[in-house]
Amino acid sequence: MTATAGARKTRAAVSDRTKAENSLGRKLVAPAVIIMLIVTAFPMIRALWLSVYDYTLTAPDDKKFVGLGNYATALSDSLFWRDTGVTVLIMVVTVGVELVVGFVFAMVMHRLVFARGVVRTSILIPYGIITVISGFAWQFAFSQTNGFVSGWLHMSPTFNWFGHTWSALLAIMVSEIWKTTPFMSLLLLAGLAQVSEDMVEAAKVDGATWWQRLYKVILPNMRAAIMVAVLFRALDAYRIFDNIFVMTNGAQNTESVSFLTYRQVIEQFSLGMGSALSVLLFLSVMLVAYILVKAFRVDLAQARQEV
Q1: 155: how many CB neighbours lie within 10 A of its CB?
Q2: 158 exposed, middle or buried (CB, 10 Å; 0-12, 13-18, 19+)?
Q3: For the chain, which residues make up each domain, given as ranges?
Q4: Can you give the pLDDT at residue 297?
Q5: pLDDT grade, residue 118 (50/70/90)?
Q6: What's the CA gap between 47 and 250, in Å, rounded?
Q7: Smallest Cα–Cα separation from 58: which of 279, 261, 266?
Q8: Which CATH class is domain 78-299?
Q9: pTM for this prediction
């Protein structure tokens, strides 16, 4: 058999395997997708329909069709773009810090010889706490009257963390990082388990330093896991609401897009504008997902070691 014929046979086998796995994957996720569509289809269609009307609960009979007017109003309002900037800032900072800290935790857990279960369970404790409760805990920690963060940092006890935009955002981001870093570390730990120890040892024998092994062997083979971890956390961070609601209630320009949508619907009873904002939030989340997937350029077939 020639080399060309062998390569063609290998590609055909890989193609058949990929097709079979894709078919099986579609069959396995089909029930969950159908149930999700049944549960979410009506609210999504309803929100899209309400977004083209000027409709408030205080005047239910005075509903006017405005087409894309609500979207035009939102996109031309500086408040929407300010809140979008705050949302993006929180997402970028928290996900970036969580990626670095979570990778360190994952490396430690991966190298542990004993008490692995205890360590992994301990790291998961913050993630198991309800977000509202952790938000109240961190609000107490940063409190001006009885908080301990200022004392730890040797700052003035009269400093009000929630009285300034950047310090309030910092407190929110710290609470978010503390809560969700365990989730990131577990996803990265799963990626580390897929890295071949033989490749790492071969690089070590060739004289590669620890940093060279990290950048040349470990991280490239973890690209798929890193993409999944960053994608999941970025989409979750972009929809941040709980910590802002508990810690600042949107004061000091700490409002996110989700919180702006909440204020329009719950506080001002504007279902039309609130629905338009929810649609824009959904489109923003989809855009973030698209950018991240394109940025990582992960070849899933190669990640499964098919080629």
Answers
A1: 11
A2: exposed
A3: 78-299
A4: 77
A5: confident
A6: 24
A7: 266
A8: mainly alpha
A9: 0.83
